[in-house]
Structure formats: structure tokens, C-alpha cells
């Protein structure tokens, strides 16, 4: 199988339903979702399967959902049904709630890190926020954007934050609070996000 087509040699790429410049905000958005997926794969390799069996199941499901999300962002075709289902958002919310219950209570911002897998998950979190910003830019450009994709990216970054804390907790490493942070969390949740 040949993977190169030569059709992009002049700065254009194919999307579902057309062609656009390779630096189009739509390409940036779904390309960033692909980047998230890579960091998720890296984090999975860093997690012990006995201690994190539930998390590894989550992350594999999330990798599939990220492909769905990227495909939805890459589509300008009204004929193609969206793949990312609304229940993906509620599944993330359920897992976030469970992680908040498991990890120690939090009042202040924390520094990313603690353990190697938690650091990888924090990277996935920040890249997810970038993907969300790009999806919003795409929406503002009067482009069709799945509202589920926007919700999903928003919850996914919260999921990664909660997961990074649980990873550190299960590995016996305390999160390091940002020393100049005011108290911004109540019941483990950020005020106003």
C-alpha cells in the first residue's frame, strides 16, 4: 500500500466533502485532535496495567472517540452523519466525578507533573484546550462544527486534569500546589468553568 498521493504537494489537502489549504483552521483543529491521540497513546504506555486497568480501558475508548471527533471536525459534508455520540460526553462526566472522589481534595491550582504518566496526561490536557480553542475559531468562521465535538473537547480536558491527579495519587505522589494560587476549587471543582 502506498501512503503518499502527491495531491498535497501544493499546499492543499482533502477533507470530507472538499479540499482546503493545509493551514486552514479546520485542518488545524482536527490535526490537533490527532496530536491529543498521540499523547494519550504515550500516556497509556507509561501506565501499569494492574494499577490502571480502568484507566487504560477509558483511554482506549477515548482514542476511538478522538478519531470520531477528528472526523467530525474534518467534515464539510452535510450527507455524512456525525460519529461522536452525545453519550461520550456523559461518560467523561461520570469518570471525572469518580476521579474527584478518589483523589485528595483540592483547593488551589497545581503544577503539572508529579509522575511521568501524569505529566503526559497534563500535556494531553493542554493540547485538548488548544483543540477546543481551534474548534471555537472554526465555529466563529461560520463553519459547521458539531456541538458535541465542542462539548467533548471541553470535558476531555477536565477528564485529563482529574485523571492526572488520580494517577499521582495511586502512585503515592502528592500534587504540588501552585504557591501563589488563591483558593479556586470548591469540592474539587473549579469555580465558574
From TrEMBL:
Name of protein: Corrinoid adenosyltransferase
Keywords: ATP-binding, Cobalamin biosynthesis, Nucleotide-binding, Transferase
InterPro entries hit by this protein: CblAdoTrfase-like (IPR016030), CblAdoTrfase-like_sf (IPR036451), PduO-typ (IPR029499)
Summary of subunit composition and partner proteins: Homotrimer.
Catalytic reaction annotation: 2 cob(II)yrinate a,c diamide + reduced [electron-transfer flavoprotein] + 2 ATP = 2 adenosylcob(III)yrinate a,c-diamide + 2 triphosphate + oxidized [electron-transfer flavoprotein] + 3 H(+); 2 cob(II)alamin + reduced [electron-transfer flavoprotein] + 2 ATP = 2 adenosylcob(III)alamin + 2 triphosphate + oxidized [electron-transfer flavoprotein] + 3 H(+)
Pathways per UniProt: Cofactor biosynthesis; adenosylcobalamin biosynthesis; adenosylcobalamin from cob(II)yrinate a,c-diamide: step 2/7
One Pfam assignment: Cob_adeno_trans
Lineage of origin: Bacteria, Bacillati, Bacillota, Bacilli, Bacillales
